[in-house]
Amino acid sequence: MDIQGILSTLLPFLPKVLVIALLFLGVISLLYVLYRKRGGKRKFSVTQFAAGCLLVMWFGLVMMLTTFSRGANFEGWVNFRLFSGYWSAWNQWSLSEFQLIIFNMMMFMPLGFLLPLLGIRTRRFTPVLIISLIVTIGIELIQIISRRGIFELDDIFHNTLGSIAGYLIMQAILDSVQKRKLDFKSAGLALCIPMAFVLLFTSALAIYQAKELGNLSIRPAIKQNMDGVKVELDTKLPEKAEMVSLYVNDRIYNVEYGERMAALVQPSFDLQQKQGKRVDGMNRTWEFTNRSGASYTFTYNVQDGGWQLYSESGEEIKLNKEEVAKHRGFYEKWMLDNDILPADTVFSLQNEDTLRWDIRKPVDAIAKGEKDFANGMVMIRPSTIGQKAPRDLFYMMNQNKYVRQVEVLSPAQAYAQFLEGNFSVYNNMKKGDLLRVKQYELAYMYDSKGYYQPVYRFSGTVNGEEWETLIPAISNF
Fold first, then answer.
1. What does the pLDDT read at residue 116?
2. Confidence at 371, pLDDT banded by 50, 70, 90
3. Which of 183, 396, 428, 439 is 20 to 30 Å apart from 52, CA to CA?
4. Hey, where are the domains in the chain?
């Protein structure tokens, strides 16, 4: 989830949290009045009341966002690998992953910022650090007990660091107010954490830009623990491998391409844009409506360059031969006129309601070929005759440009990486698992710079269930 998605999740909860905060303030005020009437001598300032109320509101928002807004979909999931989030963001080269790291810190800045306003004791660093640790660990425990989140050491680190950053900012403000001039020492300390992350992300960007090839999302952020996992190999693995071809596609991780396609379908199908671009993980999404008010969603996936225009109208029609011919003629002409349909595609009708164009190139031909090629498919489910906009248009037709031949690991060397736990899997391996590798094959996938890289696909079973994973094949990247 990116910053925009987080904010859209928070907005519906704001009124509820505000009501809770006001009720809390009312109860505390009433108790304080009773306390004073009974002879209580301790006084609380307006600043302390305001800080307390804001902390309650902040805590409610955090709980809504991290726990109550999620379903109970996690069971005993823990991640004690510090900085695994950085590796995940790096491997995917994902803006939303980097944003999430920053947001996890910013989310807890109000805690450290407000605590010094509660009293003299919380003006000191140690109490703020201890309170921050207790709060963030408590939230992580609530998540795992309620099965509404993962207990992650990364979250504890970033939440606590964010609270400390907030504390340092407040200290700089209070010190400057007390001295009636800017306290350079406190201000310098307050800038340390933000500047450290600016340096970190700037360095990561410089390293990334200096690389020829991009990053592969299949590389694991956390290695699998293979201790106690029994692995059986049911196939023979060659010790040597021939060089294979490397390609590049300029439509991958190219948001401008997605914007061009969104701009293409809008006038082509007489649609009006309802709102601006939205970021949802690896997708960029636009919302449209037609003149009748029906809603359409356009989604571009940055990882594979594919895009889709679809409506949730629920309309279902079966096409006769005459309708197939009319729809095929209209959409083929539209794609050819806009240079998005290769000339050598093969047309077919699927399920009596879907027009389909395919180009299939065998992996062996891709690996040994040394020229540009197209590969993929287009599927269109038309609406009734006379309506331009289709019910569903799925475009996954990739234009790959030949780069050069590259050396790759042998299947045996790739399998050695697998035995060391250097692979991704949805459910982590655990002691007692039986993993059988039945076959391997060379495949291709896009990296974060649009290079079409060779990878090895190992498949088989885990405890009798079908299973597969991908291992990067290029040896020197």
1. 94
2. very high
3. 183
4. 3-210, 230-243+407-472, 248-405
